[in-house]
Design brief:
Helix content: 10-25%
Distance between the termini: 8 Å
Radius of gyration: 20 Å
Strand content: 15-25%
Number of helices: 11
Shape: globular
Bound molecules: zinc ion
Length: about 325
């Protein structure tokens, strides 16, 4: 089979022929049909995640068909349409797992980091990472929902915002364009925060009732004029932009951080104390959370905007994702 692998930290993609591995106990093999290219693939490409073994095949937005079921697996069948997202497996034995908090497993596995991910024609995954795909979503449509989709959906549904509340989505990109749609479908009043006037039309089409151009206006002040945000979903990877939004929160408001950036977010104790505001991060969710995301997408019509590339063009697809110019999720497709 064909695979796109990273031979070492910081190295370029290689298209290689690999043996198709058989699934072991508790695993299934998936004939990959589509795999999303996520910004977090940078951890694998650049070797920023501790302990990655190379060569490694990235990819944690995997959609396909089960083509072999390993020993000691029940509930999954050959030919079933499935996906795998960021949550690539948990140990069932650590303190968090014993409390049912699988999302925060101390030995969480991540496809494309802990083991080979979806930039290949066949992938083996542990069953606790496997997600059933609904009929009405194509493989390409499902792929971005397995990481970008669930991240925004799960963060918002656990944010404490109620229908009618003002919820701001910072960034109209790979995560943000999904966050705006989910927030709108959850019944929030949605303020999209983007850069430049050009994004306004799209943001409104996606379900924002207000568009704030952070280049032209002070976004925090604009949010306060609307009464202050109950939640700000921070999706664009800019700690500076996130810091500037804290003052846009209303009483008991929460800055929900899902965009990954290396620099510190700056906030003073007074900013948090006045109005009892809080700052929270959110990471993805379990296979069951992903199934909730897919079911909600099916119900509500939430879909990612997608550009597709063949697996052979993984390097080009990855570069396109990194450029920030893709509209908005990049997905690899397999020709088999
Ligand atoms: Zn991701
Ligand atoms: Zn665990």
């Amino acid at each position: 089979m064909k695979a796109a692998q990273i031979p070492g930290p910081g190295a370029d993609f290689q298209i290689v022929e690999r043996e198709i591995r058989r699934p072991g106990p508790g695993e299934v093999r998936i004939r990959v049909q589509a795999c999303g290219v996520c910004h977090s693939d940078v951890f694998t490409k650049e070797g920023w995640w501790p302990g990655i073994e190379y060569p490694r095949i990235p990819g944690h937005e995997v959609a396909g068909i089960i083509d072999e079921v390993g020993p000691a697996v029940s509930g999954w069948t050959m030919g079933q349409r499935v996906g795998v997202g960021w949550h690539g497996g948990h140990d069932n034995t650590c303190r968090e797992c014993r409390r049912g908090d699988f999302r925060n497993c101390q030995n969480l596995k991540i496809p494309g980091i802990s083991y080979d991910g979806g930039y290949q024609e066949y992938m083996v995954a542990p069953v606790e990472a496997v997600v059933a795909l609904p009929e009405s979503l194509t493989d390409v449509e499902a792929a971005p929902l397995l990481c970008a989709g669930i991240t925004t959906y799960n963060a918002l549904r656990h944010s404490g915002a109620l229908p009618g509340d003002l919820v701001a989505v910072q960034g109209v990109g790979g995560l943000g364009h999904l966050g705006i749609q989910f927030a709108n479908q959850f019944g929030y009043k949605v303020a999209a925060i983007g850069q430049g006037p050009g994004t306004a039309v799209l943001a409104k089409k996606l379900g924002a009732s207000v568009y704030i151009d952070s280049r032209a206006t002070n976004a925090a002040e604009a949010l306060q004029k609307l009464g202050g945000a109950q939640v700000i979903l921070a999706t664009a990877p800019s700690s500076k932009a996130m810091s500037e939004l804290v003052d846009g929160l209303g009483p008991n408001g929460k800055l929900m951080v899902v965009g990954v950036a290396a620099e510190p977010i700056e906030v003073t104790p007074v900013q948090l104390i006045s109005g009892s505001r809080s700052l929270q991060g959110w990471a993805s969710g379990t296979a069951a959370d992903i199934e909730d995301t897919l079911a909600f997408a099916e119900l509500s019509g939430v879909r990612a905007m997608i550009e597709t590339y063949p697996l052979e063009e993984a390097a080009k697809a990855y570069a396109r994702m990194l450029s920030g110019k893709a509209e908005f999720r990049v997905v690899l497709t397999m020709s088999h």
